[in-house]
Amino acid sequence: MLQGALIGCGFFARNQMHAWNAINGAQITAICDSDPTRLHEMGEMFGIDRRYGDAAQMLAQGEFDFVDIATTVGSHRALVELAARAGVHVICQKPFAPSLADARAMEQAVAATGKVLMIHENFRWQSALRRVIDLVRSNAIGAPFFGRVSFRSGYDVFSGQPYLAKGTRFIIEDLGIHILDVARALFGDVTQISATTHHINPAIRGEDVATMLLTHNGGATSVVDCSYATRRQPETFPETLLEIDGTHGSLRLDAGYRLTLCQAGQTRQEDLSPPCLPWAQAPWHNIQESVALIQQHFVDALRAGQAPETCAQDNLKTFALVEAAYLSAQEGRCVAIDSL
Ligand code: NAD
Ligand code: 89V
What we know:
This protein has about 350 residues and is an alpha/beta fold. It contains nine helices and 15 strands. The strands form two sheets. Strands 14-13-12-11-7-10-9-8-15 form a nine-stranded mixed beta sheet. Strand 9 (about 210-215) and strand 10 (about 220-225) form a beta hairpin. (2S)-2,3-dihydroxy-3-methylbutanoic acid (89V) binds near residues 157, 161 and 174.
């Protein structure tokens, strides 16, 4: 049984702790938060007695195989480098880092120890999206030449995550990063990107709408569009909707997790509604299920000695798209990814 320690006992970490409780092959035996109230609440909720206000002190006491970093992005580099010095595997929440240079340094720090750094990039593990990724990868519609990966909502994310309203960057860094990663999972790596952004909600600082055009290595073109300024019915938070055209068919993932697959002249529909795990709550159950799936994937990969799908080396490519999208929107030009 792998022994893990959690750093960061905030809004999202509760999902991670619920998920760890049901993971085969790993358990969380200590927790850390610099905020004593949050540390106490999490410790009581999950019956964890080893509690620390300081991550260095926790790691110095050892006995861990991995750490799960569930803090916001500003602390990721320092905590990942601390974990590297302690010689443990790391699973770290998205966004990877404040900058590409930080992300590259973090990747190198852990790689030098021979341990694994995986970014908790969970959207590609949502069961509805995973079904479509598997279909595309198994050539069910031939070679994809067009894709739209779309997340549009008016849901109030700021009440649960107030920091999202305060940063100069918002939707590409926080949510677009997931949607760009899904585009990579579906269509492969990206050679160039063009982006526009809008700032609609006056109560927040950053951009809340982004529209991105991607050219993929394999030849597909995709549109990745994200909005938290869209008043729509049905409200689809937090669903990612898909339109994919391939040389031999097409796929649509519409609101309500409804899949339509057209192949070989036939049309088939599937209900891809995710399960609502016992500790989950709609509408977040879709994301919560993916947390359980990605954490199991992390443990399975460690035990098999294999690189997890969203290992640091892989997630650097998604993170580069975030940086490139901001550069493109700022300078009004298409950005080649290998120029970063
Ligand atoms: P939060 O602010 O609610 O919680 C972060 C916690 O970390 C706080 O309790 C804070 O006191 C603690 N912390 C910060 N620095 C620390 C340090 N150096 N040592 C110990 N404790 C420290 O944030 P959140 O909303 O839970 O978000 C955390 C991360 O999860 C973010 O990176 C966010 O983007 C990500 N997130 C991911 C998803 C997803 O679906 N993957 C969803 C929501 C949030
Ligand atoms: O997944 C996330 O990173 C969240 C949310 C879904 C609200 O954008 O911050």
